[in-house]
Amino acid sequence: MRKEKFLFVVLLLFCSSWLSEAKDIKDLPLKYRKWLQEEVVYIIGEKEKSVFLQLETDRERDVFIEAFWRQRDPTPNTLKNEFQEEHYRRIGYANQIFGRGAPGPGWRTDRGRVYIILGEPQQKQVYDNLSETVPVEIWFYQGFEALGMSNAFSVVFFKRDQAGDYILYSPFKDGPKSLLRFWEMTAGSDPLDISKAYSMLYEVSPDIARVSLSLISGEEAMLSSPSVASDILLANISQYPQKKVNAEYAEKFLQYKGIVDVDYSANYIDSSVVCSIIPDPSGICFVHYAIEPKRLSVELLGNRYTTELELNGKVSDSAGKTIFQFDRKIPLSLSEDEVNSLKSRPFSLQGLFPLVEGSYNLSFILKNFASKEFTTAEKNIVVFPYSPTVALGPLLLGYGVKKEHDPKSKKAYQVQGEQIFVSPMNQFAPNETLHVLFQIFGSEKEKSRCQDVKFTFLNEADELAKTKTSAIKDYHDEGIVHEVFDLREFKSANYQLVVSVSDKDGKEILAGSARLSVSSLVSIPRPLVYFDPSPPSGAGVYSFVIGGQYFNKGNIEKAHLFLNEAYKKDSNSQLFALGYARVLFAQKKFKDLVPVLEPFQVAQKIDPDVLELLGESYKALGVYEKALDLLRNYISSFGLKLSVLNSVGDCYYALGDNENALVTWEKSLQLNPNQEDIKKAVATLKEKR
């Protein structure tokens, strides 16, 4: 495998701010006002609406509308969007049926609103010719309990005062009396006499009487007064469309619309992610990650299913400064059996990268070329500096472990030859085995102090659920502890695992904790895992990456140490040579820089920075002829760059060629007139003519 496969490629900087000023609805073009205020007014959430009002162009609004419908599409991998078609059918039906005799279009009516939200009722009862009651319609629904609604309920509409359009009935706010004609004229009527009104309704129609106290099936038998729960039900009906959709996609659309290609921005999908900081025996800390997108779409090519994933990662410090970025293209080729398995289990992309000590924000963008879908994830992480004193590594909780060691590559969540299969949610099934792994770091003398390890499981009430103590020496691998627990001994619940390491006197030296849950499900579908391979420990690319991170943090001394190490491991690598040359240039060690880059000035695929750094170094050393050749070569090969053009002028001037120096600097001022030093130099040369 070629070495370039493992290299981390620098990305463009992400936008630091994604919030825009919200526009007033009246300022939107008519097309989008109509969409927002008529077409989706009952199904759009507040977060989605807020994002839509912050969009700046019609193109962005069109793409957002596409994303809006895609998030509601029950079959996103087909051309047909059944939800969208059904929604517009309901609007058409509401306008045609409920708009008759109404002062406005049918979608504005109460019946139209409920019909658009809930669809056709399972049953409909119409009472519009009873002499004792006002016109009443009872719509009966079932099957909405999954999103917090009652299993069976009715929605009632009535014509108040026997006239006008049908309006929504509330047992608590309107009460049984509002369904009776001439209630105020009834002998001995009392506005608060609910039982009398109910009795009168029951004599006329038991069905109307039943829903007059409660809309929730079965509840009316336990009531003597109108149901408050019915009003909660009516509120839930209005909120029902928002509960069906995770509006996070809208925030991601707004946040990444300037970063992710337009083709992708409409197709945000959810994902889960886990990150762990695992020190390497070399002393370098690695960020191990596992990203599980909600789905993985592929294309059929021959007898294989393929796609290409692109993972962009960015690490920034607390001040927002970018410390490290990488771009990985990951081609996938799956068999038919693997694709079929993804219908019932997730896909997990796992990888790693080295990171220097510090507190950071880590963000990922994962794009799928086949489906034009993307997902994002963010984590706050802390990398502690390596120390010879004894330390406890992170607790890794796995649902599976297997022995595996490939000296040619390094895999995510592989610790001293053991591959740990992790879950982003730390959720386990009762029939699974829980694997707990961690490392003890430090000098041999310090590690020898560690005698016993105690595992303590606490339930949500902080009550002891299980405990186990073992001697460190009983574990097979020195420096790594691997304990196994049978989860059949645990009840379905959330737990906290506390691990403590003590010395020979029983004094606690180290401690760590992790949270997990044992599911009530018999089994949990485990993902199809793809490991993005990385070079083995000790590879030069890790020194190069670490050196670059220190350089970005402003720690030039450590940057020099690691970039020099990478260069020594492979001095024929233009990438490693450039990294080392940059730190030498920052240290003004121009004599040391020249022999590092000279071999690459005639490379077939020369990096423009080679010509610039080498040319600037020759200029600093006073070798103006060589500097001039390199810098002019830069301009002819890669185009004008202001700093390079000014240096060309400097070289002409140093060589006594005032005319070419003047022409060059005047060209520079045409590109940027706001250069005071260049203006003074040009004025001086013109005076000398």
Radius of gyration: 35 Å
Any idea what the CATH architecture of the domain at 388-524 is? Sandwich
Q: What do we call the CATH topology of the domain at 388-524?
A: Immunoglobulin-like
Oligomer description: single chain
Helix content: 25-40%
- Which regions contain 5 or more consecutive residues with pLDDT less than 50? 1-19
The CATH class name of the domain at 388-524 reads: Mainly Beta
Beta-strand residue percentage: 25-35%
Structural class: alpha+beta
Distance between the termini: 62 Å
Major sheet: size, sense and barrel closure? 6 strands, antiparallel
- Global morphology: flat
Number of helical stretches of at least 4 residues: 21
Q: Give the averaged pLDDT, no decimals.
A: 90
Number of strands: 24
Describe this structure in words.
The chain is an alpha+beta fold. Among the domains are: 122-231, no CATH class; 269-386, Immunoglobulin-like, CATH 2.60.40; 388-524, Immunoglobulin-like (Sandwich), CATH 2.60.40; 572-688, Alpha Horseshoe (Serine Threonine Protein Phosphatase 5, Tetratricopeptide repeat). Helices cover 34% and strands 25% of the residues. Strands 13, 14, 15, 16, 18 and 21 form a 6-stranded antiparallel sheet that branches. Strands 7, 8, 9, 11 and 12 form a 5-stranded antiparallel sheet that branches. Strands 17-23-22-19-20 form a 5-stranded mixed sheet, with no helix packed on it. Helix 6 packs antiparallel against helix 7 (206-213), helix 13 runs parallel beside helix 15 and helix 17 runs antiparallel to helix 18 (624-638). The protein is flat and about 110 Å long. The model is unreliable at 1-19 (pLDDT under 50).
